[in-house]
Write a structure and sequence with these properties.
Shape: globular
Bound molecules: ligand NA7
Radius of gyration: 23 Å
Strand content: 15-25%
Helix content: 25-40%
Largest sheet: 9 strands, mixed
Number of strands: 21
Distance between the termini: 27 Å
Structural class: alpha/beta
Length: 544
């Protein structure tokens, strides 16, 4: 491995990667192998990305463990998760295992948060500064900050008045919090809220859930894995990994009609039979294994919603609570907001000590010293408030850094009027800067590790091309960025995505421009766009 040249206190690198989650680690491993001098700067004291920060009760991934790993057989052949959907602590163990095998930590600076980066046009290098006063110079800046790295703390009055404990789920104390016997309020019912609520329901003395939008959560079908199950899950795994590039979301299964017939030709009884089967399979199958026209055709979308609603209602005792959790009329089309997976979420609301506040009927006025005051004048007395209010999704990790291009324009300012990012990997005005598993890439519509590798391979190949051809500057053109944004927007305009206030549409954060922030046309189409660009000599990039 090439040594890292330093000058004084400033490290000199070919590539500086920000973030040591799946994407960053993959880049480090691959680029090192190609002889680049590489370093990762990581804000956390350990590797794992979101799996370091998200250690709240119940935190786990919602992809089958076998595909929630790196695809390198040398790694997966010797590794097993103990549950089908692994929890945060085992995911951390997994990252340590990968680290032991690949020796990644030696090239990672932990507890090092990048605060600023500025491109030096003369040197064609990025100058990077960290919060603790470190500086680095790198030919390329590769940002792997993930889609959920900047917590969203909502602007609720009185937050500082609360006398109890208040935590955002992604800032959960590493040593844990004892919630047994406590009166707990949970604000937010996204993927995180669902996990927290079902986990702590049985141990708290009382729980108040503040729900703004009901979550169309699907059954996870979690199970513990014995030795036989672990062996079975490895069967055909090589092929499953290969298949990721050919399926919409980088999973081993796909939309029923991704390249085939739409739901229109199917009799209603047949569709319901299929839905029963999907329901039994659980996971994302009733979503990303459904007909693809659930995203475009209101008729089939309503069938899918009503199937979900009726299944869920069977599990809720109080009809008034059922109407809040699974309303007769869908709050938004099914599956255009990120689907979550649950294990016993809906049953929690049958507990006597659990109270659901529907924020569409009764809003939060403020947080008080004692709890949460709602617009009906009720003060919900609490010992602990949990903010499961999500993140400044997808762009937040990038715009949190003060990134300045050669013209002096910051990324933050450029993207104030919306994101345009060619191939979901570069943006004009910021030469030699690449990002992955981020804006306008498959990202949030795909399996994270799949995207990290499949998009990651394109980034690695591009950097290899630059090196092999003696080039030192690359920048996407304004036209290529705009065309990419149009490609996304035009597609989304013909779908039901715009009808939900989701983070997919950047609508979860006040002040953000409403736009589809992921690449919504699926992994095969995405990779095809890269292929076409490469065939045309990396069309869309100015390379010098
Ligand atoms: P999400 O999915 O963005 O969920 C955040 C939740 O918090 C959601 O229910 C929001 O309601 C709610 N929220 C946000 N702000 C407020 C305020 N001000 N008042 C009340 N409720 C609020 O974040 P998660 O952490 O659950 O999941 C993020 C992703 O991480 C997930 O999709 C996976 O990809 C992994 P809303 O639905 O907007 O009405």
């Amino acid at each position: 491995m090439p040594g890292l040249a330093t000058s004084g206190q400033t490290e000199d690198l070919d590539v500086l990667i920000v973030g040591a989650g799946f994407s960053g680690l993959y880049q480090l491993h691959k680029l090192r192998q190609l002889g680049f001098s590489v370093r990762i700067y990581e804000a956390a004291p350990e590797l794992g990305g979101v799996w370091y920060w998200n250690c709240y009760p119940g935190a786990r991934c919602d992809t089958h463990g076998p595909l929630y790993q790196f695809s390198d057989e040398d790694l997966w052949k010797d590794w097993d998760f103990d549950e089908l959907y692994p929890a945060w602590d085992q995911l951390r163990e997994y990252f340590h295992y990968v680290d032991r095998k690949l020796g990644l930590s030696q090239d990672i600076r932990f507890s090092t948060r990048v605060s600023a980066a500025q491109f030096d046009e003369t040197e064609r290098r990025w100058l990077v500064a960290t919060e603790d006063g470190r500086t680095a110079r790198a030919r390329y800046l590769v940002l792997c900050t993930g889609i959920g790295s900047k917590p969203h703390l909502p602007d609720i009055k009185g937050m500082h008045d609360f006398k109890g404990s208040l935590f955002h789920t992604a800032q959960w104390p590493q040593g844990g919090v004892d919630l047994s016997g406590k009166r707990v309020g949970v604000i937010g019912t996204g993927a995180t809220g669902v996990q927290v609520i079902q986990e702590i329901g049985p141990i708290v003395s009382h729980m108040t859930v503040f729900q703004r939008t009901p979550n169309m959560a699907l059954p996870m079908r979690q199970r513990k894995l014995d030795a036989a199950a672990k062996r079975e899950l490895k069967e055909g795994l090589r092929e499953k990994y290969a298949k990721r590039a050919r399926t919409f979301g980088g999973y081993e299964y796909d939309f029923y009609d991704y390249a085939g017939p739409s739901s229109t030709g199917f009799a209603p009884e047949r569709i319901l039979k299929m839905y029963e089967d999907y329901w039994e399979k659980g996971g994302f199958v009733p979503w990303l294994g459904n007909f693809a026209d659930i995203w475009t055709d209101e008729r089939i979308n309503t069938v899918a919603y009503e199937f979900w609603r009726d299944k869920v209602r069977e599990r809720i005792v109080d009809p008034a609570v059922a109407e809040k959790l699974a309303p007769t009329v869908p709050p938004h089309p099914y599956g255009v907001k990120r689907i979550s997976l649950e294990q016993r979420y809906f049953e929690v609301y049958n507990q006597e000590n659990v109270h659901l506040v529907d924020l569409r009927e009764t809003s939060i006025e403020r947080i008080t010293a004692e709890g949460v005051l709602t617009s009906d004048g009720v003060e919900h007395k609490l010992d602990v408030v949990i903010l499961a209010t999500g993140f400044d999704m997808v762009t937040g990790g990038l715009t949190a850094i003060n990134i300045k291009g050669p013209s002096g324009l910051t990324l933050r300012d450029k993207w104030k009027s919306g994101v345009s990012a060619y191939l979901g990997s570069a943006t004009h005005g910021f030469p030699n800067m690449l990002f992955l598993y981020g804006p306008q890439a498959p990202a949030g519509l795909s399996n994270g590790p799949s995207s990290s590798e499949l998009q990651g391979d394109e980034i690695v190949e591009l950097l290899k091309f630059m090196k092999d051809n003696g080039r030192s500057r690359l920048e996407s053109t304004d036209q290529a960025d705009d065309a990419w944004r149009r490609r996304i927007d035009e597609y989304v305009d013909a779908t039901l995505f715009g009808r939900a206030d989701s983070w997919y549409m950047s609508a979860n954060m006040p002040g953000k421009v409403r736009q589809m922030i992921n690449y919504p046309r699926g992994m095969p189409d995405y990779l095809e766009q890269w292929r076409e660009a490469k065939q045309a000599g990396y069309a869309g990039f100015d390379i010098g």
